[in-house]
Every structure is written in structure tokens, then in C-alpha cells.
């Protein structure tokens, strides 16, 4: 939809012509047998049912005209029928003519911005708002309230799925999300889950079968937790190592000197990692060090690393007993997700929804 800059009002082009052309209107057909027909308006089937009598098509004028976006008025005094295109007020009113930007003195108005945003994603945005309102109403009916603490707990649960804060932040970036946007989306997801969870059942057999099919994924591999300081030259690395051996604080030096922007603000902490994650030179050194021991400088394609191992976890086989709660929760979430699309469709079908957003 394009809004004309010269006026806050706009018309659907050619509406009157569409009503007048393409259909024959007649009267006095009551004495003949009628055959019902289908009326197509702007490519869509109309609820109005024309009839054909002796090869002449009859359509209720007001119904057909109004579906095409025009007004039909009858003046009894003059015995006249008037057909006119409906004038639609800009949704922004007089404020739509205000400039939000200008290029070489030529204004770009709020109306133009609204039209462009509507064309880019207005329909989807409105559909999302309708869906969110439906879910909110259903949650209110069932007495479901999502608190800030619920949101924070869910964010914490999501973070636990990642090895480190850096990995979590990277996942947000990959999905074009900020933490604030994730928090804003979380309440709706929690409402859906609380509404649908009572419909979901997970048996002990399902939990056991899932564990047996995915046991390798639950087993804990050998892991170390390490911090590092990355610098471009060996001379700089040797100088830092000398300071550390003299008692300098590792985390402080990492924040000041490390070239690794992903870990320097955390004092060089890389979190826990298993074999096959880091570059070979770094991995070999890290897994050979004892907890608390310094290593390096180690050269890799990124520069020179000074490494400090802060913890070590031996490989450990998972048991069903220790994992069954997590598996049950995961299966419940999966089943809720599987149910949600059909449930939302059912909710929409039962609701009275008015959507007057103009079509493109």
C-alpha cells in the first residue's frame, strides 16, 4: 500500500469501475426459475450468491459493491442510487504528513515510513501481536501469571545449555537476538508451556528409551577448564610469563593485555572444554598441565598463548538415575512444542478476530 504524499486521504483505484463493469444488474426476475452461481471478487470467492435467470446474471448491488470497497446509497426523494469509492483516513492522521527525515530538502513523511514498514513486515507483525494477545487471554482465563523471576529462571536454564557465557552470546548473535529481545519473547513461550503441559504425559519407559538411544551424548568426556592470555609475539609472551612467575595476577593481565576479545573481559577464562574443541597446539598443552599450573608460551595460528589450567574433570559414564529428570523435562518440552501449532490454530478458529490491515 502506498500513501500519496500530497494528501492524507487515499482511494482504492478503480473500485467504482469494477462495480459497474463485468456484471449485469436487472430487476423483475421473480417469475423465472433461478440458478445459483459463484461470485469472485478481487480473486476471492464472495459469500454473496448471484443467480442466473434466462442467461442474465443478478447480484445484490449493495452487497457486491461494499465487498469491493465502495459505498452504495439510495435517495428515496430523488429515487437515485449513488455508488462511490470509500475514502480511507490515513492511520497516522494529520501527523502522517510530518517529516521523519529529509534528503536534499525533500521530506520523507511518517505516512511513507508507515507504508514502507507495512510492506516489509506489517502483516506478519500484526499476526504475531494477534497471536500474543490470544495466548495472553487464554493464560488469564487459566490463572497463569508469568513473573520476572520466572523469566530469569528460564534464561538461566537456557544459559546452562551452553559451555560458557561466550558460547551463549555467540548463539544470540547467530539468531540475530539480543538478551533483552530473548527476555521479551520468553513470557509468551512460558505461557504456552504452562497451558499445554497438563495435556502432556511422559512415561518412565519413554525416558529409559531416550536415555539408551542417546547415552553417548549424556556421558561426560574428560574436560579441563583453562584461562589464557593471547599476544601476537613471543617476546611479549615471555615478558608476561615473567610477570606471572613473579606473582602478577593472571586475570588482571588477561584483561589488560590479551588479544582474545571473547575471553579477556572474563580474565581469560575459556570455561570447560573437551578434546577436539581447541586448536591442537593449545589443546595438547592444556590437557598436559596440572590444576593451577602455568604453561607456554604456546604458538598457534592465532599468536602466542600463556595458559593456566583451573580445573579438571575426568571422563564419566552417565547413569539413568542422574539424568532422568533432565530427560523427562526435555521430552515434555518437545511434546509441548509438537502440540503448540495445532493448539494455536484451534485457538484462532474459536476466537473473533478482526484484522483491517489493508492488503498490498
UniProtKB/TrEMBL annotation:
Q: Does the keyword Signal apply?
A: yes
| Known catalytic reactions | [protein]-peptidylproline (omega=180) = [protein]-peptidylproline (omega=0)
MF terms from GO for this chain are:
peptidyl-prolyl cis-trans isomerase activity
Entry-linked Pfam families? Cu_amine_oxidN1, Rotamase_3, SurA_N_3
Claim: Isomerase is one of the keywords in the record: yes
Keywords from the named record: Isomerase, Rotamase, Signal
* Top EC class, one word: isomerase
InterPro entries, from UniProt? Cu_amine_oxidase-like_N (IPR012854), Mao_N_sf (IPR036582), PPIase_dom_sf (IPR046357), PPIase_PpiC (IPR000297), PPIase_PpiC_CS (IPR023058), PrsA_foldase (IPR050245), Trigger_fact/SurA_dom_sf (IPR027304)
Give start-end of the signal peptide: none
The protein's superkingdom reads Bacteria
PpiC domain segment(s): 221-311
E.C. no = 5.2.1.8
Under the heading Gene3D superfamilies, the entry gives: 3.10.50.40, Porin chaperone SurA, peptide-binding domain (1.10.4030.10)
Q: Which PANTHER family match?
A: FOLDASE PROTEIN PRSA (PTHR47245:SF1), PEPTIDYLPROLYL ISOMERASE (PTHR47245)
What is this protein called in UniProt? peptidylprolyl isomerase
> Species name for this entry?
Paenibacillus lycopersici
Amino acid at each position: 500500500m502506498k500513501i500519496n504524499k500530497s494528501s492524507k486521504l487515499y482511494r482504492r483505484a478503480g473500485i467504482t469501475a469494477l462495480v459497474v463493469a463485468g456484471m449485469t444488474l436487472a430487476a423483475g426476475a421473480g417469475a423465472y426459475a433461478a440458478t445459483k452461481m459463484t461470485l469472485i471478487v478481487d480473486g476471492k470467492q464472495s459469500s454473496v450468491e448471484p443467480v442466473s435467470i434466462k442467461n442474465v446474471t443478478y447480484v445484490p448491488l449493495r452487497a457486491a459493491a461494499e465487498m469491493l470497497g465502495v459505498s452504495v446509497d439510495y435517495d428515496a426523494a430523488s429515487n437515485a442510487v449513488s455508488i462511490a469509492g470509500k475514502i480511507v483516513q490515513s492511520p497516522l492522521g494529520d501527523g502522517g504528513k510530518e517529516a521523519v527525515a529529509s534528503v536534499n530538502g525533500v521530506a520523507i513523511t511518517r505516512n511513507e515510513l508507515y507504508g514502507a514498514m507495512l510492506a516489509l513486515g506489517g502483516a506478519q507483525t500484526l499476526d504475531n501481536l494477534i497471536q500474543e494477545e490470544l495466548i495472553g487471554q487464554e493464560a488469564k482465563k487459566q490463572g497463569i501469571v508469568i513473573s520476572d523471576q520466572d523469566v530469569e529462571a528460564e534464561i538461566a536454564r537456557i544459559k546452562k545449555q551452553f559451555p560458557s557465557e561466550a558460547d551463549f552470546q555467540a548463539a544470540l548473535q547467530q539468531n540475530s537476538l539480543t538478551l533483552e529481545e530473548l527476555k521479551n519473547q520468553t513470557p509468551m513461550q512460558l505461557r504456552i508451556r504452562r497451558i499445554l503441559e497438563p495435556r502432556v504425559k511422559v512415561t518412565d519407559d519413554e525416558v529409559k528409551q531416550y536415555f539408551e538411544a542417546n547415552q553417548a551424548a549424556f556421558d561426560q568426556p574428560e574436560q579441563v577448564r583453562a584461562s589464557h592470555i593471547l599476544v601476537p609475539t613471543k617476546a611479549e609472551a615471555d615478558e608476561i610469563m615473567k610477570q606471572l612467575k613473579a606473582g602478577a595476577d593472571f586475570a588482571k593481565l588477561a584483561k589488560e593485555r590479551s588479544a582474545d576479545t571473547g575471553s579477556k573481559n572474563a580474565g581469560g577464562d575459556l570455561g570447560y572444554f573437551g578434546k577436539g574443541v581447541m586448536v591442537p597446539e593449545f589443546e595438547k598443552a592444556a590437557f598436559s598441565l596440572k590444576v593451577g599450573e602455568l604453561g607456554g608460551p604456546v604458538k598457534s595460528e592465532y599468536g602466542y598463548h600463556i595458559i593456566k589450567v583451573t580445573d579438571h574433570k575426568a571422563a564419566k559414564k552417565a547413569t539413568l538415575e542422574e539424568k532422568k529428570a533432565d530427560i523427562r523435562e526435555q521430552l515434555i518440552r518437545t511434546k509441548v512444542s509438537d502440540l503448540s501449532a495445532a493448539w494455536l490454530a484451534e485457538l484462532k478458529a474459536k476466537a473473533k478476530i478482526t484484522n483491517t490491515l489493508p492488503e498490498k
